[in-house]
């Protein structure tokens, strides 16, 4: 399927690298507000055409738009693609609000086109191996779990970090989608949440000394109650100078514990242990362990062509967004809140055709 990429910033390089190598995707055009940046990306990755966003949307050779813009522009660009009759796959989060995400999905359905969304790391070898182990009963019935994403923030390394501290950013909306999508793929949808959220600093400072005003919570403690009965404690923070707690997911079952590496990655290790069982590292069940961003696009293309549901779907991304929005609201109100949306647990993924 012919692909057009909108947004040629930092994250785009890995998408261009992978999408120009996968057989399911043919990148025919790219665009950016900075047209020169789009032209540079096109020259670097062998993309035939580059220019403005309007030119890309008007190009009849583009079947699917990969939207790599900043979070605040995800819905605007997504709606423009849908209204141009094109499928769209966007970077996470799907939107800043569930209301705007719902509009995008509704218009896509009415237009007869598909919406997909990152993250697609849950399709990787690590989380898919963990999924297979859960389904095989390796730890019995999942009862509880814990996830941690503790960091000092992105202003120390990112060239343009302002959006991380604006609505649609913060540790929950930036990194939460990896963890929450991974958890939903393992345990199914979330039914209710409770939370506490704070901001440790009113401003952030880049290495060059520029100050950034913080507009969102930067330390979030949440409890997730899954429809299947398990509960998971989750901590997402940009306020931690250093920590010995690794990024990852731990699930505690009636018969053992399952540990998955950082869900921002595609690979392992995946560990299983128990009361009287030594920790063992499981062999990964699929080959997708390298940085395979864009895998969700290729799987979506195969699904469209086969007439089946795709896994990194708009419904999944909407549910994850709803969880995150509910966490922030629960923290503001000091209350336990139901999550209004739900979604099917994505089908297991073993590879592309």
TrEMBL record:
<dbReference type="Pfam" id="PF01408">
    <property type="entry name" value="GFO_IDH_MocA"/>
</dbReference>
<protein>
    <submittedName>
        <fullName>Putative dehydrogenase</fullName>
    </submittedName>
</protein>
<keyword id="KW-0560">Oxidoreductase</keyword>
<dbReference type="GO" id="GO:0000166">
    <property type="term" value="F:nucleotide binding"/>
</dbReference>
<dbReference type="InterPro" id="IPR036291">
    <property type="entry name" value="NAD(P)-bd_dom_sf"/>
</dbReference>
<feature type="domain" description="Gfo/Idh/MocA-like oxidoreductase N-terminal">
    <location>
        <begin position="1"/>
        <end position="116"/>
    </location>
</feature>
<dbReference type="InterPro" id="IPR050463">
    <property type="entry name" value="Gfo/Idh/MocA_oxidrdct_glycsds"/>
</dbReference>
<dbReference type="Pfam" id="PF22725">
    <property type="entry name" value="GFO_IDH_MocA_C3"/>
</dbReference>
<feature type="domain" description="GFO/IDH/MocA-like oxidoreductase">
    <location>
        <begin position="128"/>
        <end position="258"/>
    </location>
</feature>
<dbReference type="InterPro" id="IPR000683">
    <property type="entry name" value="Gfo/Idh/MocA-like_OxRdtase_N"/>
</dbReference>
<dbReference type="InterPro" id="IPR055170">
    <property type="entry name" value="GFO_IDH_MocA-like_dom"/>
</dbReference>
<dbReference type="GO" id="GO:0016491">
    <property type="term" value="F:oxidoreductase activity"/>
</dbReference>
């Amino acid at each position: 399927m012919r692909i057009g990429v909108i947004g040629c910033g930092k994250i785009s390089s890995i998408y261009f690298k992978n999408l120009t190598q996968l057989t399911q995707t043919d990148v025919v055009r790219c665009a950016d507000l900075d047209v020169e940046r789009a032209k540079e990306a096109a020259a670097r990755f062998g993309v035939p055409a580059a220019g403005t966003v309007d030119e890309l949307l008007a190009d009849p050779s583009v079947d699917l738009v990969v939207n790599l813009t900043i979070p605040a522009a995800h819905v605007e660009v997504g709606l423009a693609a849908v209204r141009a009759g094109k499928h769209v796959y966007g970077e996470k989060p799907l939107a800043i609000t569930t209301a705007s995400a719902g509009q995008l999905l509704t218009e896509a359905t009415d237009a007869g086109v598909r919406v997909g969304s990152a993250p697609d790391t849950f399709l990787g070898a690590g989380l898919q191996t963990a999924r297979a182990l859960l389904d095989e009963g390796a730890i019995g019935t999942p009862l509880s779990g814990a996830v941690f994403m503790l960091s000092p923030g992105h202003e120390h390394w990112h060239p343009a970090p302002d959006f991380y501290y604006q609505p649609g950013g913060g540790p929950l909306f930036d990194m939460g989608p990896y963890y929450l999508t991974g958890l939903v793929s393992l345990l199914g949808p979330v039914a209710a949440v409770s939370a506490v959220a704070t901001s440790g600093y009113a401003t952030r400072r880049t290495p060059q000394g520029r100050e950034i005003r913080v507009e969102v919570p930067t330390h979030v403690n949440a409890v997730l109650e899954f429809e299947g009965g398990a509960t998971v404690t989750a901590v997402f923070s940009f306020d931690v100078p250093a920590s010995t707690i690794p990024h990852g997911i731990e699930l505690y079952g009636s018969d053992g514990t399952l540990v998955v590496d950082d869900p921002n990655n595609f690979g392992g290790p995946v560990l299983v242990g128990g009361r009287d069982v030594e920790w063992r590292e499981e062999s990964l069940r699929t080959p997708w362990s390298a940085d395979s961003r864009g895998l969700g696009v290729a799987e979506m293309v195969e699904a469209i062509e086969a007439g089946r549901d795709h896994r990194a779907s708009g419904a999944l991304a909407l549910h994850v967004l709803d969880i995150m929005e509910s966490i922030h609201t629960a923290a503001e109100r000091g209350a336990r809140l139901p999550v209004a949306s739900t979604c099917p647990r994505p089908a297991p993924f073993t590879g592309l055709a």
